[in-house]
Each structure stands twice: as structure tokens, then as C-alpha cells.
Amino acid sequence: MHIQAKSIEEAVRAHSTEGEFRAGGTDVQERIRAGNLSLPIIDIQSIAVLDEIEFHESGTTIGALTTLESIGNHDQLQRDYPAFTLPTRTLATPQIRNFATLGGSLCQRTRCWYYRHPELGCPKKGNSDTCLARDGNHQRGVCFDFGPCVAPHPSSVGCALLTYDAQVEVTGRGKISIGDLYGDGSDPTREHTLEKGQMITHVHLPKAIENEKAAYYRMMSRKWAEWPAVEVVTRLMLDGNVISDAKLSLGAVANIPFRLTEVEELLIGNPANDDTFQSAAQLSVARANPLPQTGHKLKMVVACVLHTLQQAVATT
User: Which of 73, 167, 257, 261 has its CA 20 to 30 A from that of 182?
Assistant: First the structure.
């Protein structure tokens, strides 16, 4: 069953009891094949004004239907919010970036192979209380074990927006932080905190900071050409050679993207040099508690954090 929504109100009303939103639709066909998509499909792609980018005195507002390609190639967004645009220019493939939307990227479903298997149960599919990955093959799983689900959250965009303390505008809830969108990872049945009848309409970024330094780096298996094994988004603000502010977030290593607040605290007030960066990189795995098959990711986290810090200060 398919519903073509012409307005936000119509979409929310159709979604209030069952079904799923379709924006870019890059994952819909795959999930139909896997038998884990809830009908009806509520197509929101034609809703007006949700694909606009607006700059104003207090910050920037981006509609949830704006494509990742439009964001990544937008000159002013690249200048004002480089840590946000860098992932949108490199994730997935050019074909997907041309269709994938900002809101859809924030709310995409897990890539766990147990969830994706049409004959296996999973709490996120609602047909099991047991996470098969925890006791099964989880070599691509989390190394920061925050909750029952051990599948990494797939949103690189959510990881990037955390470094800006961005907010999302949600029908029925108003503006909430990116952190509140994802919660603490304790609910194994979902990737975000949105309820039925709730939809992201816009993302709000704060006022841009001049001359911020930014970097993004991911490690991934080219054999699979899929989601990253580890990804890091880094923002640095410098006062001469001293780090006046720092924002770092990790993705692909926990069931939610999250900020490395302890690393940020270490960096602020210290010189932007290799000694500081080496210490920060080692601290980045302080909270890690890898699964039996994911200990290899810790060295990757350290290497990615170090690389982004070095890369950020090298940008002009």
C-alpha cells in the first residue's frame, strides 16, 4: 500500500498508527525484500518547502527533504559548516547521495545482517526479544557497548551534526537536540526516539564560526564498499596555536553516534601539536568496552582520531 502525502499534516495523519515514511527511498526496496518494512509506505517526497536551505542571522535551517548531494556541494554550507558537509560529500555513492535526504539519513535503519535477514528475528523487527548478533557473528559490531543492540548506528550525518549541537524540528515535539533524537541507546527496538505521527521537518544549525578547522575520516572495507567500520568528525577552533574549543564525535562504533567529551576537555586550552593530539587519540578509547570480535576497532578509533586532529589543523 502506498500513500502520496501532499502536506506535512497529511503525512503525519497517515503515519499516526502504522506505516513508514519514504523520502529518498534508497533503502525501501531492500527492506521490502527482507520483509522488515511496515506498510503503508507514506511518500513525503512531494511536500513543498522541505527541500530549502535558509541562512539567517542566528544560524541556518535546512529542510529534511534536502538531498545530501545538495548539501555537500553547497558553497556557503561548505564554508560555514565544513564538518557537516564533509561526510555528505563522501558517504555511500554519488547515485545514493543524489536521492538520499537529510531527514532520511538521520532516521535510517540498522545495517545489521541479522536484522536484514528475512528469516531471522530481531527486536528492531518486533519478532524477537533476543539480539542474535550479541552471541553470534558481530565482527562489524560495536566496540562501545552502550545497550542491548550491538549494531552500529548507520548515520554519518547524525555523527557530524552532533559536533554542531544541531537541533531537529519534529512534528508534535518542536525542536530537540540531535542527542535527544538518538537517546542513550538503551531501547533495542529503535534507532531513534521518534514516535508514530512524528516526522523531522527541518534541521537547525547554530550561527557559523569563522575560520573553524574541520576534518572527517572513515575506515571501511573496500571489499564490502558499505558503511564505515569507524568514523570520526572533528571541529577545532584555534586562538593562535592554542585550542580554544573542540568538538569530536564517533560513529560506527556504538548503537548511537556520540561525542568524545573527555577528549574535547583534554584538547581545550592545550597547544595544537602532536603531543596533545597523541594524548587525545589515546584517551578516545577510554570508555570502550569491545565485544569478543570487535577489539580490532580500538586501534582504528585511535588512528582515526589522531588523523582528523592532524588533518584539521593542516587545513587553510
Answer: 73
